[in-house]
């Protein structure tokens, strides 16, 4: 039986074109850099082949390496461009968190204040991670209050609080995924699932922030947690 195709889901080529347009908007030199990195890699390998006497083998290998390097550079530029699009938007950190690989549960906007500062909750192998968006002088109390509220439900579980932003002592949006991935693994998978079940009992009577949360932005997947 033939698989049904979702007409709203773009094809791979269309996705690449969309990402290329995003890169072009964020950095007009981005696509030329991708092309030059691929061609440069091919040229270096071919020169090595000429010197060693394995020209045709080096051409084949150079094409493969050139495509690989080009795709890696393309992915890095796409990631930077997407971060630049999200930067400054309400809920940007939530969009980044939801793009992480692994056994993570992300609950956006568990706390919101009148200034539209947010606190998001992430549950994973480190335990519970609370991530704030907003100036440090405003979100400190929010994080402390949420940490106290969450600790009543998950006694004995490590709770981390992270301020995401551009201020002193805050983690920039582009480094948020990697920062969380580096946290120690305090729990095993059964314990993670148990913590998730406990946190479902937390009340969710929180006013949603004004304006739309970032949607439709496919964040690049972060590195797998070791």
Compact overview of the structure:
With 226 residues, the protein is α+β, with helices and mostly antiparallel strands.
Strand and helix layout:
Blueprint: H1 12-26, H2 30-52, H3 55-86, H4 92-97, E1 105-112, E2 118-124, E3 127-133, H5 136-151, E4 159-164, H6 176-181, H7 189-199
Parallel strand pairs: 3-4
Antiparallel strand pairs: 1-2, 2-3
Helix pairs in contact: 1-3, 2-3
Describe what you observe in this structure.
By secondary structure, this protein is α+β, with helices and mostly antiparallel strands. It has two domains: 12-86, no CATH class; 92-199, no CATH class. The chain contains seven helices and four strands. It has a four-stranded mixed sheet with strand order 1-2-3-4. The longest helix is centred in the first third of the chain and has 32 residues, at 55-86.
The proportion of strand residues reads 5-15%
Strand order of the largest sheet: 1-2-3-4
Mean pLDDT, rounded to whole units?
Answer: 82
Low-confidence stretches: 1-5, 215-226
- What is the straight-line distance between the termini? 39 Å
- Major sheet characteristics: 4 strands, mixed
Helix fraction bin: 40-55%
Number of extended strands: 4
Globally, the shape reads elongated
Using only CA atoms, what is the Rg?
22 Å
**Tally of separate domains:** 2
- Computed structural class: alpha+beta
Give the helices and strands as they follow along the chain. Answer: HHHHEEEHEHH
Number of helices: 7
Overview features:
single chain; 226 residues; alpha+beta; 2 domains; 4-stranded mixed β-sheet; 7 helices; 4 strands; elongated; disordered C terminus
């Amino acid at each position: 039986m033939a698989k049904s195709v979702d007409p709203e889901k773009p094809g791979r080529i269309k996705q690449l074109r969309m990402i290329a347009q995003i890169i072009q908007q964020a950095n007009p030199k981005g696509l030329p850099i991708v092309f030059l990195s691929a061609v440069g890699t091919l040229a270096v390998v071919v020169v090595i082949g000429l010197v060693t006497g394995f020209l045709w083998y080096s051409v084949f290998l150079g094409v493969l390496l050139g495509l690989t390097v080009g795709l890696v550079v393309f992915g890095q530029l796409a990631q930077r461009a997407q971060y630049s699009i999200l930067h400054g938007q309400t809920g940007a950190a939530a969009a980044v968190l939801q793009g992480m690989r692994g056994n993570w549960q992300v609950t956006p906007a568990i706390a919101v204040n009148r200034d539209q500062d947010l606190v998001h909750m992430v549950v994973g192998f480190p335990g519970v991670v609370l991530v704030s968006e907003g100036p440090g002088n405003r979100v400190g109390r929010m994080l402390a209050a949420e940490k106290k509220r969450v600790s009543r439900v998950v006694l004995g579980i490590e709770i981390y609080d992270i301020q995401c932003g551009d201020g002193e002592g805050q983690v920039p949006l582009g480094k948020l995924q990697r920062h969380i991935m580096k946290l120690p693994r305090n729990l095993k998978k059964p314990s993670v699932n148990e913590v998730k079940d406990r946190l479902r009992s937390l009340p969710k009577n929180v006013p949603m922030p004004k304006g739309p949360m970032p949607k439709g932005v496919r964040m690049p997947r972060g590195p797998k947690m070791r």
